[in-house]
Design a protein that fits this description.
Structural class: alpha/beta
Radius of gyration: 15 Å
Largest sheet: 5 strands, mixed
CATH architecture: Roll
Strand order of the largest sheet: 5-4-3-7-6
Order of helices and strands: EHHEEEEHEE
Number of domains: 1
CATH superfamily: Transcription elongation factor, GreA/GreB, C-terminal domain
Oligomer: single chain
Number of helices: 3
CATH class: Alpha Beta
Length: 139
């Protein structure tokens, strides 16, 4: 495994959100999913949490648009979203899907070995884009 920042980097509010989502998601019988939740939970114990203003732009977070390379040498692009906003047909992947759990907190250039329903695979993060903030019309 290759990590640019040595540990996961997670924005403080997203860290609290993920802890809550993980806590609420522990009622599955799917061992792959539970293994993904457990692995992310363990990695979060050593994560570097930072304020929004200090968050590196190349780190995968909620609403990031991520380009990865799969073991089959195929590039895939998707947005990482809350579970209620996921829609595979629109390339919106739940942050609680095994792939979302695998990528959260990692950075562009990182390679990750993770267990998916298809088995343990290595994926490489090729590109991370953050959504452009919507200007506040009340200014």
């Amino acid at each position: 495994m290759n990590m640019k920042y040595k540990n996961l980097v997670i924005e403080t509010k997203e860290f609290a959100l993920m802890k809550r989502l993980i806590r609420e998601s522990g009622h599955s019988n799917d061992h792959i999913y539970l293994g993904s939740v457990q692995k992310l939970s363990e990695e979060m114990m050593f994560a570097k949490t930072v304020d929004e203003t200090e968050m590196p732009a190349d780190v995968v977070r909620l609403n990031s648009v991520v380009t990865i390379r799969t073991p089959m040498n195929k590039n895939i692009v998707f947005s990482l979203v809350l579970p209620e906003n996921s829609n595979i047909a629109e390339n919106r992947l739940s942050i609680l899907a095994p792939m979302g759990l695998a990528l959260f907190g990692y950075a562009k250039g990182d390679s990750i070995s993770w267990e998916f329903p298809s088995g343990v695979n290595e994926i490489k993060i090729l590109k991370v884009e953050q959504p452009v903030p919507v200007d506040n019309p009340a200014k």
